[in-house]
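The methods section describes the discrete structure representation at length, but only in general terms. An entry of this sort, consisting of the sequence and the corresponding backbone structure tokens, reads as follows.
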Amino acid sequence: MGTLFVIGTPIGNLEDITLRALRIFKEVDVILCEDTRTTQNLLKHYQIIDKRLSAYNDQKSGISAEKAIAWLEEGMNLALVTDAGTPGISDPGSMLVKAVREKMPEVKIESVPGPSALTSALSISGLLINDFVFLGFLPHKKGRETLFKEIAGMERAAIFYESPHRILKTLESLQKFSPEKKITIVKELTKIHEEVISGTASEALEFFAKNKDKVRGEFVVIVN
């Protein structure tokens, strides 16, 4: 039986990769990627060439979980990566790990820890948070308003990811349902323009209205 390595990769700065991860990349038979082009750029940066890459996602493109399991049965060692951060955290890689655990419980699955936008954002937020609810990416339509109502009533901090296409609408919803709560937005983590923005939802909307060029990149939103 082969081994499945679940490897955390940089969320922005390519230097945020462990020595163990680089060694395993060189040793495994196949690297399963969210997007092979993104992973190829990382490998090229560290002069790791001629590696077999295969897309794995929840769409029709890329290999299926059954194919990955067949490779493990053949004794092939696989590395699972996402485009940025730790696989399985708001990422289709969790489905592969679930399938392997259910269908091949004897297969060894090793964690190779690395960056996570969630913990990185918390570490520089300046907030004293011992417990929180992580919501991943919020739904686009169905159930969205209900979720904002739930966030308004939470005693714990709520943390979620948001895209530049929906951040302003999200802040408008928070302004409506949680006008008094503190909103901390961490953007462009580990990149040149990394920034932390804090205040009420109204104050955050005012900030982006004055700095429209900053409505870009990926956002981690903390509501408490």
